[in-house]
Design brief:
Number of helices: 4
Strand content: 5-15%
Structural class: mainly alpha
Radius of gyration: 12 Å
Distance between the termini: 11 Å
Largest sheet: 2 strands, antiparallel
Helix content: 40-55%
Order of helices and strands: EHHHHE
Amino acid sequence: MKLTNRVKSLRSSNGWTQEQFAQMIGVTRQTIISLEKGSYTPSLLLAMQIARVFERPVESIFYLEEESE
């Protein structure tokens, strides 16, 4: 299984740049880039901070996806 997220679409729909969003949650822009590409899995604390900023449940932002073989 692979952890997938909707961070990029949610961030864009709010009109925030990667830099603005990074400042809101206390990480670097590079972390946001990696998160949006799916190459970084956030800690539970970071995932909860992201959910708080978007005012959504964590599971509506992050979800498990079957990996194709």
